[in-house]
């Protein structure tokens, strides 16, 4: 919301602060992504089965489902530095324990601590970045830059830990990953805390936010994009295997998706303020539906790669627009809560949807899953029409 940042705070100072926040967040998030790669690999090297490794990976998301709401409310009460400080302690402690005692039960504890810490920090950072902005255009631009952080950390964490594992072993890798959150804290702790809204004692559940029809539409549209992302990452390897493609070709198809998404997020800040959020969300959902309908019709790996890159393009533009609208239509004292609800939906989708897709694939075939998702998205995109003017109605004068 406009009005959170003091008027004497210059645009240059806010940009410098945003750069520090994003860099610090990358360090914290990279620690988790590195551990999420190293811990299962260590478990496999120790002889644990695939079921045990699958449980270990799931634990990274499990904590976020249960701790997101308390973390969101805590951020609403205390702002940025205190929630992030606690997240840094939990993350460094979790990975540090794995460096000292690299055994399976400790790796599970590492997954729980790292996953919960990153979830709590993400909510606090997103809330703070949205409140720093003094206009809708600036908010769109800030969230566009912030969306680059996960892509950067998903590269930095696994790449760095992989190199250290090869040259110095798992314990050295965990030790390095334990230091990353501390580096991030040196940057994040310098962020200027914003004035906090008075948070009254509420007996209502966070889910009463869903009583707002606009909120329901927006979060449902966000879920469409999350489910699409999960489906693509899970089903494309299955479709490629069914068509006899090699692992390197399948990896290249998925790589085209990631590269396209990263490029769009780098370019998006240049167009912030010129984009109508509701139109972009609606158009991206409809376009994703069309692409899913086309996927089973592709005959070559090159055509699949083109669909993959196009899908990465349309899906990656949605998150900054959703985040911007959420901050506009939610009461300022409940920003942390609504971000927590969104994070719960994302993690629940990531945990549950691969199972749903797998069952659906057995019943309808791989192509049937793509076609069904395409129809759902194409029809569901009509919900986006109800978002028109939603942010403008709730934006404060002067924004």
Based on Cα principal axes, name the global outline: globular
Number of helices: 15
Largest sheet composition: none
Mean pLDDT: 81
In angstroms, what is the radius of gyration? 21 Å
**Low-confidence parts lasting 5 or more residues at pLDDT below 50?**
1-8
Task: Give helix and strand order, one letter per element, not per position.
Answer: HHHHHHHHHHHHHHH
Strand content: under 5%
Tell me how many strands there are: 0
Pairing-aware structural class of the strands and helices? mainly alpha
* First and last CA, distance: 8 Å
Q: What percent of the residues sit in helical stretches (DSSP H or I)?
A: over 70%
Could you describe the 3D structure shown?
It is a single chain. Helix 3 runs antiparallel to helix 4, helix 3 runs antiparallel to helix 7 and helix 4 packs across helix 13. This protein is mostly helical and 399 residues long. Helix content is 78%, strand content 0%.
Question: What's the SSE blueprint?
Answer:
Layout: H1 11-45, H2 50-78, H3 81-100, H4 104-132, H5 136-146, H6 148-168, H7 170-188, H8 213-242, H9 247-267, H10 277-294, H11 301-316, H12 318-329, H13 335-364, H14 366-380, H15 390-394
Q: What tags apply to this protein structure?
A:
399 residues; mainly alpha; 15 helices; disordered N terminus
How would you briefly describe this protein structure?
The protein has 399 residues and is an all-alpha fold. It contains 15 helices and no strands.
